Amino acid sequence: MAPEIRRAFFVLAGVIAMVMLVWAARFDPMPPAEFSFQNGTDPKTLDPHRATGQPESRIIFNVFAGLLQALPMGEPDPDTGVQPMGAQPAIAKSYQVSPDGKTYTFQLREDAVWSDGVPITSADFVWSWTRMLHPETLCQYGFQLYSLPHAEAYNTGEVTIGDRVEVELWDRPGDVPGGDSDINNFPRGTMRYGTLKDIIKPDEPELPETMAADDRDRKLARWKEDWVFRIELASESEDGEVNWDDVVGTQDYCRHPLTSQAATEDTQATHGVLIAFNKLGAVRAPNDHTFIVQLNAPVPYFPDLLAYYPTFALPKHCIEEHGVPMWTKAENIVCNGPYKVGARLLRDRVRLVKNEKYFDADEVAIETIDAMSTESGNTALNMYETGQIDWVYDPPSLLLDELRDRDDFIPAPMLSVYFYRINTTRPPMNDVRVRRALAMAINRDQIVSQITKAGQIPAYTLVPPGIAGYESPPGFKPDINEAKRLLSEAGFPGGRGFPKVTILYNTQSMHRAIAEVIQQQLLNTLNIKVELQNMEWGSYLDKVDQLNYDIARAGWVGDFADPTTFLDLWVTDGAQNSTGWGNENFDQLLKDAAEAGGEPDKRMKLLSQAEAIWIEEMPVIPMYFYVSKNLVKPYVEGFSPTPQDRHPFHLLRLRKDAK
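That's the Oligopeptide-binding protein OppA sequence above. Prediction below.
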């Protein structure tokens, strides 16, 4: 071998060895955290405006903070042991409510800072709520702020002539003139404000009646992007205040000025024309430590909304520096809760580390916490029994009879419901008779007695029991004969001609077992053949959001103790709806209930009427009301069952004899 080749060989071998060492180092196991728990699947995102599931919320509640936080209040229920939770100060040290219940004034803590030391100010909340509601953020909880003036119009992108609007120019970082939009809607482009004087529309496209609904919607959406908006521009002071009556000129704006038939050479490109939500008094930041919120009508549960993570403050400086989704990477993310993200290992864990800059850091006892990506209840139980994790929220159902008598098993009723979504846009599921037939043919008693086995209650309504002042209407009744009659009336006597449908569920043994039982029940009772489809969490969510399913399992944990947290999901075209169903009377009853915030009895009756419509239309099949079934090591102190199964980590303590 020539010397040159020999030298090259040794150099190459050295490089390979170094690469192998680096690669191996990446997979060195992390030292165990002080406290570890089963978190189910990998969280899809840690962005509070994009998250929707429990694997995400368990982390987000502990790394971000809002004006208020949900903490224990009062004594546990003497029968169930459930600890009531209520909204208490967090970033806001105090607040006042006006006599009419429509104005909230929050005083923020002067010592509240982000984990990188940047002060938290009232402007952070104005910015965060604006981002939450912005249509391009796609936050599925935007409806929770619809009680604020102009919030719904801003979130849905609706404008009418005479509205005071904002215009975002086509100059976001990364924008290409005449090209596609930059995917990051924050940081925003240059903002202009004014009054909408006219909308010039090109000819509406002629669409054949046979065109698929999705194609029709896309064509109409593209046509609307060619609309030209004529704005009388208003002046703006150096501190950002808009003088709406001081007109400084008129300008036309369009999403696609180069191709729109309604545009002229003077038409400027814009990302959008929206109602000027954050300039019209709904949210105000008169100084760094005062945040004022105006409501359309009193909202009895408004403080509870502010203790729910979509309304938490987010770090504007971090998001604008790194963009979406890079700002949530462990090395980038900036937090303001009791913990910060130390590491995130795919399909393994999210490591949480005590945030020393948290305003109440002295009360945080546990230094490190691991949220383990463990979907299997069997695996989680094995890890628990061998001391690898300290809390299991979903032990295997087959062992519940044995676990029930253990001191470390803590079952309790929950404010939550397990259900099957139905894609009402697909025949034959678009026929209410078919939906009701399926619902009536399912034997829920078999499911809760033979599969879930933890005391779950069969559900024939949507709203779980136990909400003070509310009574659900009578639910539907299981009735196989009536189910057969409805199916025959819908054109499928004895199940003949009924197309094969698929039940979609995310990876988890309990979901599979329930789907298998329902599959057999529908075959035995209605002669309907059902296929099962299992997908990991992220793909499952995407499929449901895109209405690319027939039937899909789901669950909902109430965000707060009020019927609206369950009913608001199903408003027409709601971000959380994902069924294609809508009903004008249902929507109107919810609006009427929102306006009756100061009349509790009337409000609850209106909500009950809305639930009655939902039960009659059956866009979703309720299965059972959950119970929590936590296994918690005896040395963990401060862990109590709660209505939403939330457990603030900064309240937990480990006895000195732990592990």
